[in-house]
């Protein structure tokens, strides 16, 4: 089945082994100038996505891994009530199908009841618009974050 017409399935990945196709997805991320991917495997191996309110979500379509996103404790602040959306990437060929929105919604759903505040970093203006639709706001003066959201007033909640 053609990936562009196949249904998308978003899954919370609970297996201790990484999902099939993740290495290829991470390689594409590197090739499209997403340097953050170098931090993913060490974070995974340290158990960064296994705690309360944390997860790795992946999107499959046509039998292929198309995208990923994570929610975890924010490793860049000491506040234990602050979570972070991280490692969000959608394959170039799978963009404009609502996959990123589905992944963000899944992450926010997982965050419910755990985090008081969420932070993220993006250099992508299209991604920034997506986050802002979910109630994130630009974060002036925040270290290693371009956007923040206080959980209670999030505009959209899955």
UniProtKB/TrEMBL annotation:
Gene3D superfamilies: 3.40.630.30. Residues 8-155 form the N-acetyltransferase domain. It holds the Pfam family Acetyltransf_1. Signal peptide: none annotated. One of its GO terms (molecular function) is acyltransferase activity, transferring groups other than amino-acyl groups. Keywords: Acyltransferase, Transferase. SUPFAM superfamilies: Acyl-CoA N-acyltransferases (Nat). This is Acetyltransferase (GNAT) domain-containing protein. It comes from Kaistia soli DSM 19436. The lineage of its organism: Bacteria, Pseudomonadati, Pseudomonadota, Alphaproteobacteria, Hyphomicrobiales.
């Amino acid at each position: 089945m053609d990936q562009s017409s196949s249904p998308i399935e978003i899954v919370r990945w609970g297996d201790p082994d990484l999902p099939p196709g993740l290495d290829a997805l991470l390689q594409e991320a590197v090739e499209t100038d997403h340097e953050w991917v170098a931090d993913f495997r060490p974070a995974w191996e340290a158990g960064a996505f296994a705690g309360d309110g944390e997860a790795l979500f992946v999107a499959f379509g046509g039998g292929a891994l198309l995208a990923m996103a994570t929610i975890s404790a924010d490793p860049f602040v000491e506040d234990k009530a602050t979570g972070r959306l991280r490692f969000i990437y959608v394959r170039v060929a799978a963009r404009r199908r609502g996959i990123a929105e589905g992944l963000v919604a899944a992450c926010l759903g997982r965050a419910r009841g755990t985090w008081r505040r969420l932070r993220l970093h993006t250099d992508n203006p299209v991604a920034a618009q997506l986050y802002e639709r979910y109630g994130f706001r630009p974060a002036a003066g925040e270290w290693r974050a371009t956007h923040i959201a206080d959980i209670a007033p999030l505009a959209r909640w899955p």
